[in-house]
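Input.
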Amino acid sequence: MVTPVGKTDAVADGTRGGGADGSGSRLPGLWRRTIGELTLTYVPDAGVAMIPTRVYPLSTPQDWDGHRTHMTGEGHLAMGCGALLVERGATRLLIDAGHGSISGEDVEHFQHGFAHVRTLPAALTELGVDPADLEMVAFTHLHGDHTGWARPDAVEDPRSLFTTARWMVGEGELKGAALGDGPILAGGDERITFVADGTEIADGVRAWSLPGHTPGHTAWILDTGDGRSIVAFGDAMHSPVQVRHPDWRVVLDAHPDEAEKSRRRLIDHLARDGVFGFGVHFADQQLGTVDGSGRWRPWSDETTG
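Output.
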């Protein structure tokens, strides 16, 4: 099982615990798992309760009757938000940077509410990780719930929480970013390295272009060193239900047709032996794989053999 560190928080209107079938339905707390040569730690930052038919506008309320194990007691879709700390030997990097400092008062039309916000800096402290010591943050894309603590307004220091880190961003990602009045990431272009598909940015960490949600959306393939791999796939999928419904469009996908093609490529890849996925928004079943029946199977000792 994934090892929890500290308590598991419930999303706004949910309760603790998961579904009877083990698929789960709530948000994770801080957890850590050693897989081969890798140590992975999920660093939570926000929990979000979504309105399912607004996130997936092609779905109907009846479609969700078979997916109650992913939902809160009041019928909202539970999603998490945070970052993944990746450690292998002397290599230590973060994938995405959480939601950042948000009030939770202003929600989008597809959201019901937030819970346990503003915890990523505290979680890193609990882990004994000084954000200033991280040399690299690799982003799946540049939406605000992934750039959070790396934005120039995240903390009083304009260098962000991660004062010296380099930003690794997929090629083409800035084409779809809303630049507004200033840089999305602290330091702007001076700190950004644009990464092409297939580029290895650190030992055993390789970029995989999965565009559609955004133009430069990038998954990160992590080599465990023992013949397995883990794909941190960002928003290529937002919920385990998409494994069975890759045709369900997401309200935030910039290019829906391209996003669906990327989802199908990802699902096919996750069905291979020895390949596992990390879905940052996948509530309390972020680690898993696609089993022989075409369903998301959360990580367990049995999953890995």
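The domain at 31-304 is CATH 3.60.15.10 (Metallo-beta-lactamase; Chain A).
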